[in-house]
Amino acid sequence: MKISDAASLILGIDPGTQHTGYGLLRAEGRRMELVSQGRFSPPAAWELPRRLAYIHKGLMELVAGYPPQAVAVEDIFYGHNVRSALKLGHVRGVILLTAALAGAPVFEYAPRQVKSTVAGYGQADKNQVARMVSELLNFREPMAADAADALAVAICHISQSGLNGLLAHTPTRRGGGRGWRGMSADDVATLNYDPGKG
User: Fold this and answer.
1) Which residue of the set 108, 146, 186, 187 is catalytic?
2) Which member of 5, 47, 61, 74 is catalytic?
3) Is 146 a catalytic residue?
4) CA proximity to 104, closest of 61, 72, 141
5) Alpha carbon distance 37, 149 (integer Å)
6) Is 74 considered catalytic here?
7) Which of 5, 76, 127, 158 is the most exposed place for a label (fewest CB within 10 A)?
């Protein structure tokens, strides 16, 4: 699929050691079109290094076919135990490496903000998020929860980019773009996100 000069291809990723979801959206202004979605699921019996290699290979093939203008990643939820957080950190490292090799800036979003942006409620459950993703993209076919979460991250990025056209050009400590930490109070209010409850 050829992406026009006026459009951007946004890759959303939901990291996971068992399933890493991805969702590709074509964005032009505030208009969104689903390009591809799915997940990478290495066999559970494999050791972590081999699973990471599997995810990396899948992501590299994906970005080779559809070079993204931005990669949006869900940040780690710190309610995880330390062991789970460390494993997720390894997967995120693979994702950041893939984005760097593809020359795409990385934007990170807290799970609560993704839910608030997509579903209007920071504590929405996975089913609510998946339903809203399907509605926003007018997509009625079955979708894995991990893919829906990845698309929600991509939608969150597109929403924030629409609020601030300079988002993609402002540096950050955490990646290639400003991301959610640099939002103004007005931006936060527009997204119906209450940082006091985060």
Assistant:
1) 146
2) 74
3) yes
4) 72
5) 10
6) yes
7) 5
Please indicate whether residue 125 is annotated as part of the active site.
no
For the whole model, what pTM was predicted? Answer: 0.76
Q: What distance in Å separates the CA atoms of residue 52 and residue 48, rounded to the nearest whole number?
A: 6
In 25-163, which ranges are continuous DSSP H helix?
48-65, 82-102, 111-119, 126-137, 145-163
The tokens for 146 are: 């991990």
Give the other-Cβ count within 10 Å of 9's Cβ: 21
Phi, psi of 174 (to 5 degrees): -100, -10
Binned at pLDDT 50, 70 and 90, residue 3 comes out as very low
Terminal Cα-to-Cα distance of the chain (whole angstroms): 39
pLDDT digits (tens, 9 = 90+) for 41-53: 999 999 999 999 9
Look over the chain and give the mean of its residue pLDDT values, rounded to a whole number: 79
In DSSP notation, 175-195 reads SSS--GGG--HHHHHHTT--G
Q: Where is pLDDT greater, at 110 or 30?
A: 110
